[in-house]
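Changelog excerpt

This revision adds worked examples to the README so contributors can see how folded entries look when concatenated. The first example is reproduced verbatim below.
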Amino acid sequence: MLWYCAFTWYPGTSRAEVAQRVIQQHDVGGNHPERIRGWYNLAGGGAGFLIIEADHPDDLTAFLQPYMDLMSWDVRAISELRYDEEIERLRQVTREST
């Protein structure tokens, strides 16, 4: 299952604090880079999102908890769509509704 995990640093959180925590979690094996499908920062800094692959919400929670004192999280389950397949599915929906 894929999870969209938007983050926003709390006021007063510094770049150095975030950098230290990311490295700390990496060094102890807590970041599980094999599960990170995408990592994006928003322009201006202090916010962004990750796309994480995890089979169970508890696995995702274990990944996010070490950062919860530095940033807030907005987490949503997502499903990936393949454009051409989705267009065909939508064509079928429109045929069925007419």
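The second example, added in the same revision:
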Amino acid sequence: MELSFTLRGRPRAQELAQQIRFAILEGRLRAGTRLPSTRALAESVGCSRTLVTAVYEELVAEGYLEARRGSGTYVAAELPVASVVTEGLTSPPPKWLEPLRDPDGDSPGSDECRVDFTLARQVVEPVSRRSWARMWRAVGRQSPPRDAGPPEGDPGLREAIAEYVGRARGLRCGPDDVVVTTGGVRALDLVAQAVLRPGDPVAVEEPGYPAARRTLEDRGAVLLPVRVDDDGLHVVELGSAPLVVYVTPSHQYPLGVRMSVSRRVALLEWAARHDRLVVEDDYDSELRFDGPPLPALAGMERAGRVVYVGTFSKVLAPGLRLGYVVAPRWLRERLVRLRERSGDRVPWPVQRALAAFLGSGDFDRHVRRVRRQYAERRSALREALQPASGVARLRGMEAGLHAFLQFTPELDELHLAEVARRRGVRVSPLAPFYLGTPDRRGWLLAYGGLSTQQVWWGARVLTEVLLESVELRAKEPLGGRP
């Protein structure tokens, strides 16, 4: 019989084998059908006879074909006929499957926009090419380990992290207190897996970090939202129910405030009094612009009631997927056992490269450089939004890569966000970051991944949107819209 196949790309043997499989499964080649000789098929599709012979042998081994000595090659008699999709897996999902929820309350839009301030954008300033090359050259001179390495992470990297957090954040710890993870959220998930049972109450900030809340929920936690004000978490509202408290004290996500010293002391006293655990997420503590950072919670106590979670994603590159946990010994042993069981590891070259980067001084130089760049963008944001300061106040500008633009109560954050989007600027409204009813309104503006010119232009558009809204409200007749 004659067969018509067209080889358009990829490994030709792989494509020919796949087309024959589809022809069999779709019923175009029925059971018992004799295939052309290898010479005839090679001439038909324009390839070598050796290639066709190899394809036939592969399909015989898989059970699609059977070779009969002295007779030829045939479609296997026992192969069932099934309908398959030939151009990608485009079948619809099961009807019961719910859509995935975005953990940050928004996602980069498919519509065209000139400036995207949304928090879903994980873009940071890259490491200089010279430093990047130097850290990888350090790895290239080493031989890879013969096994997967310790589940808690490469010893050299853990030593470098312990030295760094001790120097920069005041943590009194050693390499044995550090567990390396595949990112900050994974670090939180590991801690939750180690200490929580389904139904355990966990206090979270309100508003708070959606990805962290979802991680805790996935581990069966019952979330108890606790208000945040200009001094951070309202410790007096914790009560005694939560077994764990998750906080972002250095630069609260998303409002950007930092927890005051008095609140920090109160939280540590609460944890000691009730024998509870505090998880401190210090994800962007390096990026402070106005003076040195406050000491980490974990550096203020020695009772082993604070678990410190950090990541290098915001200051180096999100794609590295490297975080860490500094944990008391009793918890570290649990974390190591879980990682050993899962086989989850950060690739060895990434760990060694980062260890070299931290130890060489390049990391500190990189942080100083990007602080200057982010500070310029922060200044552009503040200056461009100044004309709207009567109705919208910038908050959380002391650190991090985003700011909170808090509205006066009469402004509608969702409606105005849509107006801004139509003018080419996307923002993250605050409301999705609440578990309950929002007690304030505004936009979250991530400026880290934008140029100074983009920040300026986008913020000017937002200023126009806000001022125009105020003017429209002023023109409305008494009693509301006609």
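Reviewer comment on example two: The mean pLDDT is 86. The first strand starts at residue 65 and ends at 68.
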